[in-house]
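Re: [help] complex structure
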Amino acid sequence: MSHERIDLPQGTLDLLILKVLSLEPQHGWAISERLQQMSTGIVHVQQGSLYPALHRLERRGWIKAEWAPSDNNRNAKYYQLTRTGRRRLETETASWRTLSRTIEQILDFA
Amino acid sequence: MERELTTELQLHYEREVARLVAEGASPADAHRRARLAMGSLERVKEETRDMWGVQWLESAVQDGLYALRTLRRAPGFTLVALMALAMGIGANSAIFSVVQGVLLSPLPFRDAAGLYRVNTLYPDGTPYSLSAPDFMSVRERTRTFAQVEAMSSQVVTLLGTGEPIEVRGTRVSDGLFEELGLRIALGRTLLPEETQPGRSNVVVLDHGFWLRRFGGDRGVIGRTLTFAETSMEIVGVVAPGARVLEPTDFYAPLTYDARFSPSTAAGRRTEFLTVVGRAKPGMSDESITADLRRIGSELQAAFRNTNDALTFNAQSLRYVLLGDVRAPLLVLVGAVGFVLLVACANVANLLLARTSARRAELAVRSALGAGRNRLLRQLLTEALVLGMSGAAIGLALAYVATRALVMAQPADIPRLENVGVNGPVVWFTLAVALATSLVFGTLPALQSSGASISGGLSEGNRGGIAGGGHRMRAALVVAEVALAVVLLVGAGLLVRSFVQLTQSDPGFRPEQLVSFRVTLQGERYRDDVVVRARVGEMLERLRVLPGVTSAAATSVLPLSGRGAMVGFAVEGAAPPPNVNAEIALAVVTPDYFRTVGAALRRGRQLTEQDSTDGPRVAIANEAAVRRWFPEQDPLGRRVSINGVSWELVGVVADIVQRSAADPAIPSLFVPLAQRATRSVKVVVRTGADPVTVTSAIPPVIRAVDGGLAMADFAPATDLVARTLARPRFYTSLLSLFAVVALALAATGIFGVMNYAVTQRTREISIRMALGARRATVLGAIVRRAVALALIGSGCGLVMAAVLTRVLQGQLFGVTRLDPLTFGAALVVLIASAALAAFLPARRAANLDPASSLREG
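Output below.
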C-alpha cells in the first residue's frame, strides 16, 4: 500500500479495462479491484479516471452496460465487452506488444 | 444519465469504504481514504460529463494548435498548398464580388422589381422609344400599371465661367422622381405644374454634377444655369447615388408640343421618350405584355395613319440594365469554379502524399490511445486550418483585384461602382473555404485514419506504393487535367474570336483619324444656312492646318450606333415583306468617305455640285442595297425619305456601326447641303504625326465660334478599342484562369510523378542495376505522365465539347467545336505534362543503383 505507484501511460487504461471485462462482466468498483489484483498493486488506477474511461469506452461501443442486482442485492451498473470490443481488445493487444517490443529494442541499443 | 452516474459512484464509494473497514481501518479513516482514493466526486462527475460533450471543444482547440505546428514544420508543403488555395479561393471571391455588385445587389430604385421599360414594337420586332402622344395614351389606357412616367435625355451646351462644356440633361415627367424613388438632398423637387410650358425653366442638379461644377456649394439654389438657348433656375439637388437609367448632369421638367394629346394623331411618330412603368401589385409579365398589346391594337384602330402595325411591349428594368452582361458573367463564375476544383484536387493530392509520409506518426498516436474518430478530427482540423488560411490570403488578393477592376473600368460593365469586398463577399469566402476544406480534407483523412498501426510502424514500409493511395492520387490528377483542358479550350476559343475581331474590317480606316463633336444650338443656329456656313468654315480652316490631309463632317460617326431613323420607301417597287419602312440616315459633307477611308463600291461620291438648290441625291450602303435592291442595280433609282424623293447616285461599303459581330445596318447618306443637322461630328485625317495637329484644332473651332463646346475629342482608334473592350476583358480573364489551372495541373502531375519515383526508388534501382539504360527509365516515367495526361485530356475534351455551348454568344469567326482550338489545347496539355514529369524522370534516371539499394 505504500509502494511506488507507476502511473499508467495515457490510453492504456482502456486496454486494461477491456482485458478485465474479457474475463467476465463487472461493475465499476469490481473492475478497479480486479486491476489492482492483477497488477499486484504496482499500477495504480486513479479511481477518478476509471469512470470517464468506462463512459468513453461505452460511447465507442466497445463495452455495454446494464443495471442488475449485485451481490448485496443493490442495483449496480454492470459492464461487459461487446463483439466489437472483443475484436478491439485483440488488435490493441497485438499493437501494444509490437510497440513495447520496438521500444525495448531501441532502449537496448546502447 | 446524471442520476445513474451519481448512483454508480455512490456504490463504488460504499464498497471502497467497506473494503477498507474489512482490512481493519476505522470507519472515519475508511471514509477519508475512500474519498481520497476517488478524488473529488464532483470532479469525477465533471470529467465523466466532459467525456460526453464539451470535451470536443477543448480537443478542437488542441487539434487546431497541433495543426498549426505540423504545418509550420513542413514549410514547402504549406506554402504550395496555401498558394493554390489562395489563388483558387481568391479568384472565386473576386468574381463573386463582381456578380454580387453587378447582378445580385438591388437596383438603386424604389421597389425595383415592379419597374418595367415600355417600348414601341415595330413589325420586325425592333424596340423603340415612345412618342409623347403614345406615352399619354398608354398612361391613360393602362390597366396593369399603377404609374407610368417618361424621360428623355439630350446633350446641351452649358455656358458660364470658363469654356463652354457639354452636359447631359434629362427631362422627366411629373411623377418620375417619385416612381423611381429619387430623393432630394437640397432644395426641392420638380413640381407637377412645372411641366406646363412657361413654367418649366427649372432644374434639379445631379449630386455628382453639383460637387464637380459647384464644389458642393449649398448656396447654389436660386442660381441659374445658362445654356445656348435658355437659362434655367436651380431649385434643388438630388441625393448622392440617386439616378435614373443613365448618368445625367441635371433634371428638368418634361414638356412637349402643346398640340400633342392622347386623342389626336399629331406627333405620334416622333419617338424620343424612355417610358418606365410601375406595375400594380401581383401583375405578371404576361398580363403586362397582353395589356400593352391591347393598347397597341386600340391605337392602331384609332390612328391608322400613324400607328398601323405598331404595338408595345415591356421589359423588366433589371433586364434592361443588366441583360446582356448576365451570360458572360455566369460563364466566368463557372470557369473560376473549375479553377477552384483544380486547386482542391491539387491540395488533396499534396495532403495524401503528406499523410502517407506521416503514417508512422499517426500510428504511434493511435497506439497511444487516440481513437479513429480523434485522428479523423485532427486531420480535418488541419485541412480546415489550411483552408481558412488560404481563404484569408485569397480574400486579400480579391480585395486588391476588385479595387484594380473598379479603377480600370473595363468593358463598360454596368454598376461596377457597386463591386467590392463587402459583407456578402466575406460570407461567401467563408463558405467556400469551409466547403473546400471538407472536400480536400476528407479523402486523406479517411484514408489515413483507417491505416493499421502495425503497417505504419513496420520497417519495410518505405518500399512499395500503397495501392489505393496511388490510384486516388492518379485519379485526382486526371480530374485536374480534364478541368484544365476545358478552361484551355474555352480560353482558346475566346482568344481566336478576339483575334478575328481585331482583324475584322471596320469598313473605314481608323488610324490617323481624329474626331470630335460640336452641337450647333441656340438662336444663331436657327437658320440652316448659318449651320451650313459655319460647318463649311470649320472644315476650310481645318484643311489648311499643317499635317491635315482632309476634313469632313457627319451626323453619325462609325462605331457609334445606328443614328436617326427616317421613313423610307423605294419608289416604284413593292416594299419587301417583314421589313420596317425606315432606314438609318446620316448627313455628311462631300469629303466624308474619303476622309474616313470608306470605299465607294459603285457610282459616284457626293460633291460640292450637289447644292442646296440642286436635285436631291443620296448614297446607300451595301446593307441597304441588299435589303431593298436585291439582285438589282440601285443606281439611278429614286427613293422616298419621309415623303420627299431622292435619287441614288452611289453605293458605299458597309461601315461597322455597332460591332463586327452585328449585321451591318442599312444606311443612307445625304449631303449636308440638302439636309441640315445640328449635331455635327467632325472627322480629320492627319498625316504622320497626329499629336501636333490635335493641339491645333481647338483654337480653330474657337475662332469660328467661341460659344461652341468640343466634346468627345478622340482618335478613331479609341472608337475601335471601345468595341473591343468587353471581348478583351472576358478573354483576358478566362485566359488567366486557364493558365492558372494549367499551372496547377502541371504541379499536380509533377507531384505525383515525384512521389512515385520516391516510392519506387528501390525498384528503379534494381532495374538499372540489371542493365536498364538511363534513357529508358526517363522515358518510362515521362510516358506514364503523358498517359495520365491523355486520359485527363480525353475526358476534358469531351466535357469541353458539351460546355462550349455557353460561349456561343461570344464567339466570332470561330465555331464552338473548332478543331484547331481543341487540338491546340490537347497539345499544350500533353507538352506541359511531359515537361512537368521531366524533373522527376531525370531524378530517377540519375539514381545511383548502388547507394540507393544500400539505403533500402
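Chain A has one domain: 6-108.
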